[in-house]
Specification:
The chain is mostly helical. The protein has helices at 2-12, 19-51, 54-90, 94-130, 135-148, 152-167, 172-195, 200-224, 240-274, 277-312, 316-350, 356-370, 373-389, 393-404, 406-417, 419-448, 455-462. It is built from 17 helices and no strands.
Length: 463
């Protein structure tokens, strides 16, 4: 069985052949998953705004911050699992692939259950920290969260198992499974909101059911892959040190996401103080902005797998070239999104709002964020490169420092130019993060590869 499994691994590794073609092959399913996710998010927001109301949009936006905390905790297992599985595949170490996989899934289920309990007892605390004063908006947020807590163990395990399979290079499988889940979610949104008028609880319930279904399907898939995941038994004793390995890589990302969400909550508190409807405007805008960061995240995850496997195999030249190709694509993507946001923001918000004042708020928000899209895409991509190397601390530090600067920036600029000052503080921090992270990653590559190539060579190839 071991020899057969190593044959299977040989077919999965991304160590030979055309680099650009190989990167595209594993990127396309991840990008497609991201695009489908964006489509779902926009449809979800459409159902809420058109069939429940503007305040419901703000209510769901408020609940999202508590869910973001959950996503941060999920990174403890998903980020480490993908990095370690990819590196193990590169070394052709089948035993480590199997062990890291089952340990990560076991940990994700436990963490998901813990967070469900936290939401059950402390949802009011989360929402009070945002500063929502409107009782109707607060009620929408709280009701959404109370239903969503059922999903966390399934959501965590789904994300971790998707990361594991992505780490092996089989990115098409998570795409198909997650696309099924998102399709089911959209159908259930329509049934629960339009047909049965269940309100925001129906939106949340649709997400719960779709995530449960998707997590069961991907688990069955992994169990069926006897050659690659032979011995995949969740409740099996393994070395505790391997769990620590996973957490060491995932911890910086987890801490960074916690801090990012905390900072976002502080910003949201300032936004609600200035204009509570602007919370909903930002929520819709994040859906538009998702075209940038979700596609970038897809390429970033593909790069993490590519870098991880080639790093494990010590094929450093392929790391350099894959990053150059990915960076050039990301720069083109960010440029296109920037043009759309800067010149067509009013058209985008007109799809969701009828109130002219709300549309103008949205236009101003998306235009200001449009100036930073290239840099945000560069940041997200480069995080994937760091994840592939297993060095998740540097991007977390850079992200925290400049994301934290949004708070004083938002409070200072809002005193001068009002709500737009908050948007400018967010946009400018993304510019700094993008530039610094790319420079730092190029420096890190020179260190880990013993000056194998020059940083200027990578930049020139990307441009």
């Amino acid at each position: 069985m071991k020899n057969l499994s190593n044959d299977i691994l040989e077919k999965n590794v991304i160590l030979n052949g055309n680099i650009a073609r190989g990167l595209i092959k594993i990127s396309i399913p991840l990008i497609a998953t991201s695009l489908f996710s964006i489509f779902y998010s926009l449809i979800d927001s459409y159902f809420v705004s058109k069939f429940i109301g503007d305040k419901a949009v703000s209510g769901v936006a408020g609940a999202i911050f508590a869910i973001m905390f959950g996503a941060a905790l999920m990174n403890l297992t998903s980020v480490g699992a993908q990095s370690l599985v990819a590196q193990s595949v590169g070394r052709k170490d089948l035993e480590s692939v199997q062990k890291y996989s089952r340990i990560a899934v076991r940990a994700s289920l436990t963490l998901g259950l813990i967070y469900s309990i936290i939401i059950l007892f402390f949802s009011d605390v989360f929402l009070s920290l945002i500063g929502i004063k409107d009782t109707e908006i607060f009620s929408y947020s709280n009701n959404y969260l109370k239903v969503s807590l059922i999903a966390y163990p399934f959501w965590y395990s789904l994300s971790t198992m998707s990361s594991i399979v992505n780490g092996t290079g089989k990115t098409k499988i998570p795409f198909l499974i997650n696309s099924f889940g998102l399709s089911l979610n959209i159908i259930l949104d329509y049934i629960f909101i339009v047909v049965f008028d269940f309100g925001v609880e129906g939106i949340s319930a649709a997400t719960v059911i779709s995530q449960m279904a998707s997590s069961v399907i991907i688990f069955v898939y992994i169990k069926s892959q006897k050659d690659l995941f032979y011995g995949f038994i969740i409740f099996k004793k393994d070395k505790f040190s391997m769990l620590i390995d996973i957490f060491k890589i995932g911890a910086p990302s987890f801490i960074n996401r916690i801090l990012f969400t905390s900072i976002s909550m502080a910003i949201a508190s300032k936004i609600s103080e200035l204009n509570e409807i602007a919370l909903g405007v930002q929520r819709i805008g994040i859906g538009f902005e998702a075209f940038s960061w979700n596609i970038s995240l897809g390429v970033s995850n593909a790069l993490a797998t590519y870098v991880g496997q080639n790093y494990g195999a010590k094929k450093y030249d392929r790391i350099k070239k894959s990053y150059s190709y990915a960076l050039s694509f990301i720069i083109m993507l960010g440029s296109l999104i920037s043009i759309i946001f800067i010149f067509f923001g009013e058209n985008l918000y007109s799809l969701y709002y009828d109130n002219p004042e709300t549309i103008i708020l949205g236009k101003d928000y998306i235009k200001i964020l449009g100036y930073s899209q290239i840099f945000m895409c560069m940041e997200i991509l480069t995080v994937g490169g760091f994840n592939g190397l297993g060095r998740t601390l540097p991007p977390s530090i850079v992200s925290f420092v400049f994301t934290f600067m949004r708070i004083p920036g938002a409070y200072l600029l809002s005193e001068i130019i009002g709500l737009d000052g908050v948007w400018w503080s967010i946009s400018m921090s993304s510019v700094f993060k993008g530039v610094i992270l790319v420079a730092y990653f190029l420096y890190t590559l020179k260190l880990v590869t013993n000056d194998y190539y020059s940083s200027s060579e990578i930049v020139s190839e990307a441009l």
